[in-house]
């Protein structure tokens, strides 16, 4: 709670120097492909159905930067994940059903931050502990528990945020008694898949909707001890912006339940595997879902 109060004090300072808002909506994202796609979906939906101008401020590093940016009024909307909001922002222990986690963050974000949590977009993007498919087949392993006995021989590569967040590496290592050949390498998220494929590391923490899982023949280990909380994708929106532009919430609500995990994998692969333009693939997706 002390950390939460500290955040609130910082928010007050940040809000005092926030930029003036005109008739435009500023959308932010974190710095990985899926966030880019979700941000572009929000942007195109608003552009297609209102006369509002949309500014895109994508690749804003990780969770904490996006959160502080929306508190400061520098962005109006960004995509978040319920489990991340619960553990990284609210500092609560992982646990609870999808509905329980959603209800808690919706209530707490409104109470402490004056932020609205929109309805889930339709997919749960949990952390995915990935190894090479050839290793999974050779060693006949399918769960993190089964992989733990091989971990002293393996080299791990994780993103900075995964190493630091409360639902990340430290708790995972304790839950599964993981011990690697050396301290995990902290890597840029964009390098994890390539490093695993090229055998520079043997296990990484990716996302269950990664488009390169199938393309690179990776195997996602089952979280058999249910360490990770649900990570439903949701829009986070400034209440001040919604009061001025209530139509934005109605438009974003149209996306409720419209994006499946398979949809997200295909969209991610279109960017990471096929190197297509995000504007084009999002436009095609919205048309396919009859949202344009």
Task: Tell me what you see in this structure.
This protein has 15 helices and ten strands. By secondary structure, the protein is α/β, with parallel strands linked by helices. It folds into two domains: 180 residues, D-Maltodextrin-Binding Protein, domain 2 (3-Layer(aba) Sandwich); 94 residues, Osmoprotection protein (prox), domain 2 (D-Maltodextrin-Binding Protein, domain 2, 3-Layer(aba) Sandwich), CATH 3.40.190.120. A five-stranded mixed beta sheet has the order 7-6-8-5-9. Strand 1, helix 2 and strand 2 form a beta-alpha-beta unit. Helix 4 packs across helix 5. The radius of gyration is 19 Å and the shape is globular. The chain starts with a helix and ends with a helix. The N terminus is likely disordered.
């Amino acid at each position: 709670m002390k950390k939460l109060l500290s955040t609130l004090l910082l928010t007050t300072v940040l809000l005092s120097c926030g930029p003036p808002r005109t008739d435009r909506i500023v959308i932010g994202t974190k710095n990985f492909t899926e966030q880019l796609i979700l941000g572009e979906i929000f942007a195109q939906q608003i552009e297609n159905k209102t006369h509002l101008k949309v500014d895109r401020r994508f690749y804003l590093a990780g969770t904490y930067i996006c959160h502080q940016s929306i508190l400061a009024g520098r962005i109006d909307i960004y995509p978040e994940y319920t489990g991340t909001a619960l553990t990284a922002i609210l500092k609560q222990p992982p646990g609870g059903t999808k509905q329980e986690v959603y209800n808690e963050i919706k209530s707490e974000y409104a109470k402490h931050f004056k932020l609205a949590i929109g309805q889930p977009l339709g997919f749960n993007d949990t952390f995915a502990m990935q190894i090479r498919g050839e290793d999974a087949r050779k060693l006949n392993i399918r769960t993190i528990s089964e992989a733990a006995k091989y971990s002293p021989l393996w080299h791990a590569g994780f993103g900075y945020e995964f190493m630091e967040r409360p639902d990340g590496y430290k708790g995972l290592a304790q839950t599964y008694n993981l011990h690697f050949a050396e301290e995990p390498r902290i890597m840029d998220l964009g390098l994890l898949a390539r490093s695993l494929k090229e055998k520079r590391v043997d296990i990484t923490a990716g996302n269950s909707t990664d488009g390169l899982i199938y393309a690179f023949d990776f195997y996602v280990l089952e979280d058999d001890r249910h360490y990770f909380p649900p990570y439903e994708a949701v829009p986070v929106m400034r209440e001040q912006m919604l009061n001025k532009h209530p139509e934005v919430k109605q438009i974003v609500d149209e996306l409720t339940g419209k994006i499946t995990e398979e949809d997200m994998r295909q969209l991610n692969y279109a960017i990471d595997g096929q190197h297509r333009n995000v504007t084009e693939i999002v436009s095609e997706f919205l048309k396919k879902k009859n949202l344009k």
